[in-house]
Specification:
The chain is α/β, with parallel strands linked by helices and about 500 residues long. It has 17 helices and 18 strands. The longest helix has 17 residues. About 0% of the residues have low confidence.
């Protein structure tokens, strides 16, 4: 058994596309197919169901044409039906050379859906296999609902397999169609089939309805299957199929007596592309490919990693083309911030680090998400604020904007201990704020405010956080220009903070 090869068939483009609301275009299917075969290096692709639509036919034609030119045609497979040769005709038009024939793997399905006897079904299947062979099409056979067949009509399953193993077929495909198997049943059922048909090529096709897809795959491999059917991101009907990334990681780390050819460094890249094309969002905690799975949040974890990689496991992010991150938030602590500073090539003294940490905690308490890209902006804002003596404080403000009415602001300002209040309208909320501010300064200080000559807003480049935007305002007073910055999750508030800094400078 040492070094036994497990074939990986990806069925994202067929079974994965049965995810509710997902439909790939022709060009998207071709792009995904190329990536799966050339970069991820799966052994086989199930790309479509026969006779579904004109668009499906075009997609298969595009893929088979490319595959023929690049010596991949024998790796391209299509789901077909026992339909008197109609699927075979479709395949010939599509240019495909391997069919995955859908047949009944339980007596319940056979009796109630097809309303046929086993003998009638077997005769139809034999005719299909022979017709395919005449047209140089190879045949693999699905036993639909096989898992319930083994539970409730085992005699029928073995009668069928006795018949099937005498036919000219390449592979027997055993699906847990409804995702009902436990890991124990999977092990026992596959073992029974394996022992009875030791020379047959057997694939296992797991679904994830009870979140047991990966566990069942593990047991199927240990019981001796030759191939596995997986999808990118676990896409598929209902709860989806056994997910590619998790299964490959499990096999490589825990089932070391078998081998797969899948290139695990490409898993994340392929996962993101399929997410983009499908619109099927990856949960942030999805093993291997989720956004958060290589992110340490607690400060104690970052501290442990600093000291001796105490919170590392074998799932190293670099294996999958990813990088470990340390989250910034109310639980992150100084160790997390130091890790992020190291990555950015920045350093702070203890006092500065303490202030930055406090600011990040404050943002976390507001349920804001802070990313590494935000960090330089936070540092700049915190340290800049510390250098300015606060003689003028924006004490309170109310910003109002109602349909059919001009935006308005009521402003309370404290200047060297004395409080002032004003109300004004403007073309926008910040304009209304500035008009109220001008009123106060005109009335109480007899001064004019500097002219606002430039106003810019930016978010940290590459940031996926919702925490921060930075407003940069350029002011001019008596031919002298100066800049102030404000940082907040709200654009108007960040502009007000930048304005408050200006008031303390003039």
């Amino acid at each position: 058994m040492a070094g036994r090869k497990i074939e990986i068939m990806d069925t994202t483009l067929r079974d994965g596309e049965q995810t509710s609301g997902v439909s790939f275009s022709v060009s998207e299917k071709l792009t995904i197919a190329k990536l799966l075969l050339e970069e991820l290096k799966v052994d086989r692709l199930e790309i479509a169901s026969a006779r579904v639509s004109e668009g499906e036919l075009q997609a298969v034609q595009k893929i088979t044409s490319w595959a023929l030119e690049n010596n991949f045609l024998d790796k391209i497979e299509v789901l077909t039906f026992v339909d008197g040769g109609k699927s075979i005709d479709w395949m010939l038009e599509a240019g495909a050379k391997v069919q995955n024939l859908l047949t009944k793997g339980s007596l319940n399905h056979l009796t109630h859906q097809l309303k046929k006897t086993p003998e009638q079904h077997f005769a139809d299947i034999k005719a299909n296999i022979e017709l395919a062979a005449k047209n140089n099409i190879k045949t693999n056979v699905y036993l639909e609902d096989w898992s319930n067949g083994m539970r409730n009509s085992k005699a029928y399953v073995f009668e069928y397999l006795d018949f099937l193993t005498a036919q000219k077929i390449e592979r027997i495909l055993l699906p847990d169609t409804l995702g009902v198997l436990t890991h124990t049943e999977t092990a026992n059922f596959i073992t029974e089939v394996r022992e009875r048909y030791p020379n047959s090529h057997i694939d296992f096709h797991g679904h994830n309805d009870y979140d047991l897809g990966v566990a069942n795959v593990m047991e199927a491999v240990k019981a001796g299957v030759n191939g596995l059917h997986l999808t990118i991101n676990g896409m598929g009907e209902r709860a989806g199929n056994a997910p590619m990334a998790s299964v490959i990681a499990v096999i490589n780390d825990f089932l070391t007596d078998v081998k797969v050819d899948v290139n695990e460094t490409a898993l994340n890249k392929v996962s993101k592309l399929v997410e983009t094309f499908s619109g099927f969002r990856i949960p942030v905690n999805k093993p291997v490919v989720g956004a958060n799975v290589f992110t340490q949040t607690a400060g104690i974890h970052a501290d442990g990693d600093n000291k001796n990689n105490l919170y590392f496991n074998d799932l190293m992010p670099e294996r999958f083309g990813r990088k470990r991150k340390y989250a910034l938030g109310k639980t992150s602590g100084k160790a997390n911030i130091q890790k992020n500073l190291q990555d950015l090539g920045l350093s702070l003294n203890d006092e500065e680090l303490k202030k930055v940490t406090q600011r990040i905690i404050e943002l976390g308490d507001k349920k804001e998400v802070v990313s590494q890209e935000d960090l330089p902006y936070i540092i700049s804002d915190v340290l800049d604020s510390d250098t300015i003596e606060k003689r003028v404080v924006v004490e309170n403000y109310v910003l109002g904007h109602a349909k059919g009415m001009k935006p308005s602001t009521t402003l309370q300002l404290r200047v060297e201990g004395i409080q002032y209040e004003a109300h004004a309208q403007g073309d926008g909320q910040f304009d209304a704020f500035m008009n109220a501010l001008r009123k106060l300064y005109k009335t109480h200080s007899k001064k004019d405010l500097p002219d606002l000559i430039d106003y810019g807003v930016r978010i940290p480049p590459g940031s996926h956080s919702d925490a921060l935007c930075e407003t940069i305002i350029t002011w001019k007073r008596e031919e002298k220009e100066f800049i102030t910055r404000g940082l907040d999750s709200d654009q108007t508030v960040s502009a007000i903070k930048a304005t408050e800094k200006m008031l303390n400078i003039i």
